[in-house]
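Give me the fold.
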Amino acid sequence: MKTLAALLLATVTVLVGVPGARADEAKPAEEAKPAPAIETGSKVSLEYTLRDAGGEVLDSNKGREPLTYVQGEQQIVPGLEKALAGMHPGEEKQVVVAPADGYGDVDPGAMAEVPKAMIPADALHVGTELVARNREGATRLVRIKEIKDETVIVDLNHPLAGRTLHFHVKVVGVEPPGK
């Protein structure tokens, strides 16, 4: 009987340290599943703040809905996607993305000259950003670079092309592939 009493005392001692635990609810530690890591095909939710090299905030979703994307489907810039691989929910990281792994270098040839009549009169200012649509219906952001007598030169480069991007990211959630 002494052996049985000692065994019961040991079981009670272990369960006392777990608030609300009962003997019939005790589970081996190996049953606890680790949080999933970001891998190809994972659906990822992120909180982020994007800054330029001088520290100016360019974009942020902090305090709003998280950004959701699928890892490996090129839905975010390649440098950030690569840096997020292997992270788990709750982890945070500072990521610096060079132009080549972000929106690319500025292409001086990515300019188009369009008739001035195609631009709304209230938008005819150097630096104005407009949404342009190609023949297939795809849209892209363009900026007015120069205004001439009859035409306007628009810059087709992404507004962040040629810039080093500084991200602070927090992984909010990860759904493994196939879920």
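The chain has two helices and nine strands.
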